[in-house]
């Protein structure tokens, strides 16, 4: 995924700094006025810095820039890479003309395994960096006078079935942290008369419970400012094409056209006037041709096969008119195509978000807690997490959290043993609590992150019991989640209701607890063998928390029948009641 560096004219150096844990990119300004430095911890979020590595560092870079660039011009660069799934390694030698060689290096002489080859096309001023046991290629695309786009790819070695070591490239893994929604399609057949077309601007609504519906956006196709509209300017598209020996396939993504052509004379991928020849074994491989497209506001990166051919091109997506993807077979027949599209979040904060970030940076931000592995750290006004990556979650005050979506929203049930789905209700980057949580107990500490975390939990708790997500006949009860979206929630679940009750629900909302627990003795979604016991536990805890005996009295007949049923299930030999798939012990039947 590209990063805009409007002032960049040429790359000077690209390296990983072990001490700071950052990747650094040094470059000449396009107007010749000097040099700059951009830094990143995750190869995705880049920040242009005036000075890195001490005061005057940028000036030092500017002073040595031209001689540094001239010294490296035309000279190969050597990097040792481990072969995938092997303890062996080889050396990669990169030339300025985009060519590379793989071979051995004895400290003085490089011996190539074969002739120079080319893996990528469309970039210039490329540099390699090695750090964290990774080899990353950085390059620039776009016109010098119009600003440059930084593109990155990770280089790796793998051994083929024939024993030949080959170079391949893939997007940096941290891009996965930007995924916020996912769509999937399988197409049985494509021909000139039967193209495939799907909008990538849509909305969801409750369907037949437990399902949801994916619907077109109400209003004009370019009406993308609606709060319920799901779309993204940045896309990660993965496509597999299974076709005849002779075909011409056109892919249109946000108005950008990519053609894939295969016949006796040529095998290539082309877009925006750039053509990427494909090796025949890659184009005709069993299992189909794999394509991965990364699209942002100004660039597209295309990885073919398993990264054995790569193309970078500058683009201008037609966001206002063409928020769709279309597959059109112009010649031949595509027997099958599988398509997976991920919407990605932006890495650039808005002006309003930038102001919130600055408000979250007091002179001293106290460390409240750091995990033993140092994978996450909680401060008074922010939380840093290595798993979720950049940026941190910023908390300027107890009623504000600035944090982008860090889950992948799905719109169909997964085809796995759990048959589950991830849903996202609030897709914005900024959270404020609803005023209604004032009816709940509050928490005040000296730390905005602790207060905001509690108030966020209270906000979610309130909404799960609000009319906003209540199913018909379940008003005033706790829905198990906001799963289907406003208009209908996930309904009252037997097991979940008791877990909410015993985890402070009986104290926070005794009226909602009573209605919900009473409902579970008669109805509710029972999704586990522990459903028989759960209302007994929840109602007893309700009595302990409130002193209200009337709920036990009202449900006594039902509770006695549940106790009798549990007695029948009791295993005398083991002294246990079978309860596989019970949340209390996470047990599952033996295979």
3D architecture notes:
The protein has 8 helices and 35 strands. The strands form 7 sheets. Strands 11-27-26-25-20-29-16 form a 7-stranded mixed sheet, with no helix packed on it. It has a 6-stranded antiparallel sheet with strand order 17-28-21-22-23-24, with no helix packed on it. It has a 6-stranded antiparallel sheet with strand order 30-31-32-33-34-35, sandwiched between helices. Helix 5 packs parallel to helix 7 and helix 7 (534-546) runs antiparallel to helix 8 (550-569). The chain has 591 residues and is an alpha+beta fold. Helix content is 18%, strand content 35%.
Describe the structure concisely.
The chain is built from 8 helices and 35 strands. The strands form 7 sheets. It has a 7-stranded mixed sheet with strand order 11-27-26-25-20-29-16, with no helix packed on it. A 6-stranded antiparallel sheet has the order 17-28-21-22-23-24, with no helix packed on it. Strands 30-31-32-33-34-35 form a 6-stranded antiparallel sheet, sandwiched between helices.
Strands, helices and their partners?
Blueprint: E1 3-5, E2 8-17, E3 22-29, E4 35-40, E5 47-49, H1 57-72, E6 77-82, E7 89-94, E8 99-105, E9 110-112, E10 117-118, E11 120-121, E12 124-131, E13 134-141, E14 148-159, E15 165-170, E16 179-187, E17 196-199, E18 202-206, E19 212-216, E20 234-243, E21 247-253, E22 256-262, E23 267-271, E24 274-277, H2 280-283, E25 289-295, E26 299-304, E27 309-314, E28 324-331, E29 334-344, H3 351-359, E30 367-370, E31 376-379, E32 382-385, E33 393-397, E34 400-402, E35 430-431, H4 448-464, H5 494-508, H6 510-520, H7 534-546, H8 550-569
Parallel strand pairs: 11-27
Antiparallel strand pairs: 1-14, 2-3, 3-4, 4-5, 6-7, 7-8, 8-9, 8-10, 12-13, 13-14, 14-15, 16-29, 17-28, 18-19, 20-25, 20-29, 21-22, 21-28, 22-23, 23-24, 25-26, 26-27, 30-31, 31-32, 32-33, 33-34, 34-35
Helix pairs in contact: 5-6, 5-7, 6-7, 7-8
